[in-house]
Amino acid sequence: MRINQHNRDFFEYHHKTFQRLTFDDVLLPTQYSDVLPSQINLETMLSTNIGLKIPVISADMDTVTEWEMAQALAMQGGIGMLWQSPDISDQEGWIDRVKYAFNVKIDNPATIQQDKSIGYAKEILAKFGNKFSTLVVLDENGKVAGLLTKDKTQFSSNPDDKISNFMIKFEKLTVHEGNLDLNEAYTLMKKEHVPKLILIDKDRNLNGLYCWTNVQSLVERKNINYNLDERGQLRVGANVGVHDYERAERLLKKNCDVLLVGTAHGYSKNVIETVKELKANFSGYKFDIIAGNVVTYEGAKALFEDGADAVKVGVGPGRICDTRVIAGVGGPQISAIFECAKAAEEYNKPIIADGGIKYSGQITKALAAGADTVMMGGVFASAIESPEEKFMVDGIWFKPYRGMGSEGAMKENKTGKRYGATAGGKTVPEGVEGKVELVGGVEQIVYNFMGGLRQGMGYIGARTIPELWEKGKFIRVTSAGDQEGHPSVDMVKEPPNYQIRKK
Ligand code: XMP
């Protein structure tokens, strides 16, 4: 059960008196525990069909997630959501960079015609920077005819030698008809001692290539935390906005795992229609849909009802957000998570707590309130892998971080239809432009944040996120109680996981 009776009573009590709470209003008292942080399993669901090894997503913002961030976070077991660049080919290129990070299954292996020469084969390999030495050989009809490997070409002394005299002929190759996932390829290659496994269809057309060294290094690495799809490639998601079906299809063709219909107002006609259309028109592709953002039970319910595989929760908690101030709307985040968790429980689907996370303890609270994952913008903008260049102010390195509804993002046409308010043809920003201190690599950031979460779960006696839902019981704290929890000496050194409160 996602919401325990204590938390239901606690939140309903505040609800009845029209009060909503956020992170600093609540705490989770410690409980009896025999759980060590090292025994804790942080696996969770991102959406109906996609799991994560850690409950962490990087935000779809231009100062946060392009391919480097998405790749680094998927290698830690999370997932990155690519921001919706106006140029669709940017997102296509970023997906390729993430998907081909390890060249596990090569979907489009380099090929050569069998009547060509060894000299020509060397030219082709040089064009690819001599990063590999194998070419799949095709006959005059474009069907697989053999494989040209370095083992054989080394015996050629004349560049005019014909490839067909040096290739391993089709009959002597181990090929596989149909698809194989990474683990199946591993088993077959190991059993048959095959260094290169060619995949074909029933008509002998080329379908892909597995190379043993890549397959082995991925499958045999113990404790591997990578977040991989069935092909053994890293998972990635992307914001596709509303009613942009050309974008959606182009990204799905690149094997994008999840499409995010992400706007400032998810409980809206455009978002609901887009979710429905994507579900109805792209059933030939394997993908999940995340929709958002909402802060109410009704909003989350509407999105689940129309087919969302996960709903993103949060209006205004983010550190670059001023929607609540500018528009006077939104909802304190912990209560918003609880409200949407009620719908998640009914539909048995995940929700994502988006925005407002600065400290790891807030992740423990967001999950205990019923979320499956958290999305973070500012935390990851401060990583080496975020897209923008670092810059120095008074001897300290910073990275830019701005809202997708900020004036700068709008003027550069990077907002899409996400924050669309106009007044007399002019835009009204709902976000600010700022900077965050450069903290380090994604690996280090994840280590600190997941370390804090594990400690929190250890104090509560929860081995898994569902156990945290069951055992985490909120109490209300006063502002004096909250203040008491923060260090109150003049720090001489800033710790890696606590930013001194500047305000
Ligand atoms: P954090 O706190 O993790 O928040 O930095 C990231 C989330 O903030 C949202 N976002 C905005 N909200 N105006 C807003 O009111 C904006 O310009 C804006 N840009 C991003 C978004 O949900 C993101 O994941």
Outline the secondary-structure elements.
Layout: H1 5-16, E1 26-27, E2 44-45, E3 51-52, E4 56-58, H2 67-75, E5 79-82, H3 88-99, E6 105-106, E7 111-113, H4 118-127, E8 135-138, E9 144-148, H5 150-153, E10 168-169, E11 175-177, H6 182-192, E12 196-200, E13 206-211, H7 212-220, E14 237-239, H8 245-253, E15 258-262, H9 269-281, E16 288-294, H10 297-305, E17 310-313, H11 323-327, H12 333-347, E18 351-354, H13 360-368, E19 373-376, H14 378-381, E20 391-393, E21 396-402, H15 407-411, E22 422-423, E23 426-427, E24 433-437, H16 442-460, H17 465-471, E25 475-476, H18 479-484
Parallel strand pairs: 4-5, 4-19, 5-14, 7-8, 11-12, 14-15, 15-16, 16-17, 17-18, 18-19
Antiparallel strand pairs: 1-25, 2-3, 6-13, 8-9, 9-10, 12-13, 20-21, 21-24, 22-23
Helix pairs in contact: 2-3, 6-7, 10-12, 13-16
Bound molecules: xanthosine-5'-monophosphate.
What's the short story on this structure?
The protein is α/β, with parallel strands linked by helices and 503 residues long. It has 18 helices and 25 strands. It folds into two domains: 5-101 and 227-483, TIM Barrel (Alpha-Beta Barrel), CATH 3.20.20; 105-220, CBS-domain (Roll), CATH 3.10.580.
Question: If you had to describe this structure to a student in words, what would you say it looks like?
Answer:
The chain has 18 helices and 25 strands. The chain is of the alpha/beta class. The protein has two domains: 5-101 and 227-483, Alpha-Beta Barrel (TIM Barrel), CATH 3.20.20; 105-220, CBS-domain (Roll). A hairpin with a 5-residue loop joins strand 2 (44-45) and strand 3. Helix 2 packs parallel to helix 3 and helix 6 crosses helix 7 (212-220). The longest helix has 19 residues, at 442-460. Bound molecules: xanthosine-5'-monophosphate. The site of xanthosine-5'-monophosphate has 25 residues, from strand 19. Xanthosine-5'-monophosphate binds next to strand 19.
